[in-house]
Automatic annotation (TrEMBL):
Protein name: FAD-binding protein
PROSITE patterns: 4FE4S_FER_1, FAD_PCMH
Gene3D superfamilies, A to Z: 3.30.465.10, 3.30.70.2740, Vanillyl-alcohol Oxidase, Chain A, domain 4 (1.10.45.10)
Domain FAD-binding PCMH-type: start-end pairs: 33-255
Entry GO MF terms: D-lactate dehydrogenase (cytochrome) activity; D-lactate dehydrogenase (NAD+) activity; FAD binding; iron-sulfur cluster binding; metal ion binding
UniProt keyword terms in alphabetical order: FAD, Flavoprotein, Iron, Iron-sulfur, Metal-binding, Oxidoreductase
Alphabetical GO biological process terms: lactate catabolic process
The keyword S-adenosyl-L-methionine appears for this protein: no
Pfam families in alphabetical order: CCG, FAD-oxidase_C, FAD_binding_4, Fer4_8
Length: 965
């Protein structure tokens, strides 16, 4: 590997990564497999790719092109040189709006492409559920389909041509057969067309007639029908085994802006399957299944719970989501009426009972449609949110049959699952007879691996019985390539091998996929191989919700199934560091994989406390976006605490970390001499002079210590308080005006408030968060216990505990119950409320009256990451809706980037600013002068002030401004 690395370093401009940690992050995709790559290259140009192919060929090592790394069947893992196209090789080369076509690099993500196309009224409609991270190159290699293939077809139907480099280093344009660029390419074309002519009868006899067939090579493209053969269609679905795509020409479609959704409820799963063949006669653009298991699991996921409550009626065993998008939107009401009538004709009514209960719920609201679509597209990950050792496993997941056979096929498959003592989870594309089904198995157990093999054999026999396709969407990879002979016959497999040999005689590109594949149950290739073991180790937080070593830490880490939802570049919060760097290292998935490999000994001894692990975690800002937005619940912010703790125990902490961690301890003393404490900001050159010692960048001023910090005695004790105020360290010592505004606002609402205080003679209360950021868990526990002791009596009286700083108040709901598990902290968590939450809670309280006027014509609101993670944003919006004649706009942002001390660090301040520049800073700069900028987070306010000319205020100050005089 050293020779390979050295050769690449000399000839490429992209990032070359051959260390064990980097290779480990590319050893898995979203399948059950793990294969350690030889090295990783993120190419910056086509020249880099050419060089890599030449070097790989010279040194006789395989090469694997990789996009988002979300393959379900193991297509994107191999003992090869991996080329990650996503970081740099991801631009739009050409856009022809009038001709409705574009040419793109393979690394561009589908959502990014569609965002660029939207202003032109166009989109690329192969809308896979992984659109936020799926690359066009990966989708092309996999012949992806999406939920609207009934109308728009698959990738093969929408790829016009491909520029690709072959194993011999030559580059060719693959498209409709016609003029050729060279004699060599003409010879290749002639050979392929002769193969098509020779095998036309066999292709007609053996290729399934269902729309969803993506198994094997598309050699049916070599049999011309109404138009010339298109050689690009042979590369589509080839899983990177034939050539390396460098530019892909796509067919574009006009956006149909309006659509309607009908949610059809069924009392039994089998009835839903039988109904699908009838519902498609209404010509919807998609019919998607949601089964009872998915409904139940989604109810337990915070980001989906409210959506389920709003659109699901009663207790259906299955839902079919029927979507219409007509060119003439006036036809939509008619379509919904026809759907309702058809449900009635099929025997379902809301007044019916037993097998006659059911009906259709219309969803015309676009926002609700989007929320339901988000839930459906997260189906796989919702299914994978099971915390037990057994998980839904992908291996017979996307077989496709004709719609009239769908009910019988699913019933037969259910019988197979029952035979082997497991059950399946079902969802997805009922409109094309391609349901995603995953039996629940524990692949760490040899007996369950044997069950998987037996289920696969019997399932594929069942598919063959119905003349279906064993691979209907997710391709072949390591899971299904072995079964081509069962599905296509020995002669067709030889045809596939002939194509591979003609393109790639030395097996350079992604060997072992489609042809000459290993056994699908070869456990040496599994993520959890027979020798996989996680020895017991000490952890500091409560992980008992999960199984495994470290008190359950192992199980929590293993919840990451590599689905890649954290790779999204817009919308939500996670993963803000990745949005800046585009590096797998700086990603929830990358960190989780690194942790799993470390605790299982696959990265060498002491990997958990190593410098490489510290680098892996360095840009994690503990935003908690993954806690809410990762569908499998990977909470990297909490995991980082464990890593920091282990490292602090072994290596100690830096002076910089001590300055941050111990702030609550020295704050009372610094507050007595604010002039001295602020000297770093005010004395010219002092910040630069102390930069190396303190680790704080000289390019930013630190928060200013207040000359009049908040004192508990400012609020007189009352005999019968209705609320308790937790004065956090940041607002107490730096922005006490926020606490004073809160007291004033609550007084205006006639809410007597008491400040939670430490015992006399002790320093003020603190949540312990600063200690957690440095891994000083025992010190954090001490602070947390002091806070619990002070607040518990109030919680036991049922009083709300109100706080202002999200990262501090919400610690009572998140970290403190994990630090000090038990009934006391559970009770405190129930009563901990942000100020806006408390006011929103009074919506139906006739005795609560808060007289407000308009503080400004418009408010631009930025939510703190922890508010988003804990589902608080809706309460803020509800509270601000009380402001008369005031427009409130919520900025769609990820993390602001300041993240406590992160934005002040010498090594991290540049990334911090780049995070702000993604969405937040540009939105603030666009705001009118009379728009008030509002943010609850101390860090958020400082970031906005540092990166724009505006000074935000806390919501408490906003409400104070709005109080009627």
């Amino acid at each position: 590997m050293s020779q390979l690395s050295a050769a690449l370093q000399k000839r490429v401009q992209g990032d070359v990564m051959f260390d064990t940690f980097s290779r480990g992050r590319y050893a898995t995709d979203a399948s059950l497999y793990q294969m350690m790559p030889l090295g990783v290259l993120s190419p910056k140009s086509e020249d880099d790719i050419r060089a890599a192919i030449d070097i790989a060929a010279e040194q006789k090592v395989p090469l694997l092109a990789r996009g988002g790394g979300t393959s379900q069947c193991g297509q994107t893992v191999n003992e090869a040189l991996v080329l990650d196209n996503t970081q740099y090789f991801n631009d739009i080369l050409e856009l022809d709006v009038e001709g409705r076509r574009c040419v793109v690099r393979p690394g561009i993500v589908l959502d990014e492409l569609n965002r660029a196309l939207k202003p032109h009224g166009l989109w690329f409609p192969v809308d896979v559920s992984t659109a936020s991270r799926a690359t066009i190159g990966g989708m092309t290699g996999n012949n992806s389909c999406g939920g609207k293939s009934l109308r728009y077809g698959m990738m093969r139907d929408n790829v016009l041509s491909i520029d690709a480099i072959m194993a011999d280093g030559s580059k060719h344009h693959f498209g409709p057969v016609g003029e050729t660029s060279s004699a060599a390419f003409a010879a290749l074309t002639d050979d392929l067309l002769r193969l098509g002519a020779r095998e036309a009868a066999e292709i007609d006899a053996r290729f399934p007639k269902v729309m969803r067939r993506v198994g094997g090579y598309n050699i049916d493209a070599l049999v011309p029908k109404d138009m010339p053969a298109n050689l690009a269609h042979l590369l589509v679905g080839s899983e990177g085994t034939l050539a390396y795509s460098t530019a892909i020409e796509l067919k574009l479609w006009p956006i149909l802006s309006e659509k309607v959704l009908g949610v059809c409820h069924f009392p039994t799963f089998n009835q839903a399957m039988d109904a699908a063949q009838h519902l498609v006669t209404l010509k919807p653009q998609g019919v998607e299944l949601v089964d009872a298991t998915m409904i139940a699991l989604a109810r337990d996921i915070p980001m989906f719970r409210q959506t389920i409550e709003e659109f699901v009626t009663g207790k259906p065993d299955a839902l079919l989501l029927v979507e219409f998008a007509e060119e003439d939107p006036s036809l939509h009401p008619q379509k919904l009426r026809q759907l309702e009538e058809m449900m009635g004709d099929l025997g379902f009514s809301w007044s019916g009972t037993g097998k006659n209960w059911g009906g259709m719920t219309a969803v015309p609201d676009p926002k609700m449609q989007a929320r339901i679509a988000d839930l459906r597209s997260s189906g796989l990950n919702i299914m994978m949110s099971m915390k037990a050792e057994g998980k839904p496993v992908s291996f017979v997941e996307d077989c496709a049959v004709e719609l009239p056979d769908l009910a019988d096929y699913t019933a037969g498959l259910t019988d197979i699952f029952d035979k082997y003592g497991t059950r399946g989870t079902w969802y997805a594309h009922a409109s094309v007879g391609c349901l995603h089904v995953r039996p629940v198995l524990n692949l760490k157990l040899d007996q369950d691996v044997k069950k998987m093999r037996a289920i696969a054999e019997e399932c594929f026999d069942l598919v063959a019985k119905y003349k279906g396709s064993h691979s209907g969407e997710h391709g072949d990879g390591l899971v299904r390539s072995e079964f081509h002979e069962k599905m296509f016959g020995a002669r067709m497999v030889e045809n596939f091998r002939e194509v591979k040999t003609r393109f790639d005689p030395t097996g350079l590109f992604n060997p072992g996929k489609i042809v000459d594949a290993p056994k699908m149950d070869d456990r040496s290739l599994f993520r959890y191989s027979p020798d996989y073991d996680v020895p017991e180790f000490e952890t500091k937080l409560d992980w008992t919700d999960w199984p495994g070593s470290g008190g359950g830490f192992q199980g929590a880490v293993e919840m990451c199934n590599n689905n890649g939802a954290c790779r999204k570049l817009k919308g939500g919060v996670m993963c803000p560091s990745f949005r800046v760097t585009r590096k797998e290292q700086d990603l929830t998935r990358g960190r989780a994989n690194t942790l799993r490999l470390a605790i299982s000994g696959q990265l060498g001894p002491d990997a958990l406390t190593s410098d490489q692990m510290a680098d892996t975690m360095k840009l994690c800002v503990s935003c908690k976006g993954c806690k809410r937005e990762c569908p499998t619940g990977v909470d990297m912010a909490r995991m980082k605490i464990e890593v920091q703790s282990a490292r602090a125990k072994k290596h100690g902490i830096s002076f910089h970390d001590r300055l941050v961690a111990y702030l609550p301890r020295y704050a009372p003393w610094a507050a007595r001499l604010p002039f001295l404490a602020n000297l770093r900001n005010t004395l010219p050159g002092f910040a630069k002079l102390t930069e190396k010692l303190t680790g704080f960048t000289a390019t930013r001023d630190l928060p200013t210590w207040s000359a009049k910090p908040f004192k508990d005695a400012e609020v007189a004790n009352t005999a019968a308080p209705k609320a308790v105020l937790f004065a956090d360290s940041f607002n107490r010592y730096f922005e006490p005006e926020n606490l004073r505004a809160t007291v004033k606002v609550l007084a205006a609402a006639d809410i007597p408030v008491q400040v939670a205080s430490a015992p006399k003679g002790e320093r003020p209360l603190c949540c312990g968060r600063t200690f957690l950021s440095a891994g000083l868990v025992e010190e954090a526990k001490q602070e947390a216990q002091r806070l619990v002791d002070a607040l518990l009596p109030y919680a036991q009286q049922g009083l709300p505990i109100i706080g202002l700083e999200p990262s501090c108040l919400l610690t009572l709901r998140d970290e403190i119950p994990a630090l000090l598990p038990g009934k006391d902290t559970e009770l405190l968590a129930q009563h901990a409320r942000m100020l806006e939450e408390y006011i929103a809670d009074q919506e139906d309280n006739p005795d609560f009256n808060l007289p407000l006027t308009s503080p400004a014509p418009k408010v631009l609101l930025h939510g703190h990451c922890h508010q988003k993670a804990m589902g608080v944003m809706s309460s803020i919006e509800k509270t601000l809706s009380r402001l008369p004649d005031t427009e409130v706009e919520v900025v769609e942002t990820s993390c602001c980037g300041m993240a406590g001390a992160f934005g002040y660090g010498v090594e991290t301040h540049e990334v911090s600013r780049k995070m702000a520049e993604l969405d937040l800073a540009p939105a603030v700069r666009k705001a009118d002068e009379d728009t008030l900028i509002v943010a609850d987070g101390t860090s958020c306010r400082h970031q906005v002030a540092d990166t724009t000319a505006r000074k935000p205020i806390h919501v408490a100050r906003l409400l104070e401004l709005a109080l009627q005089k």
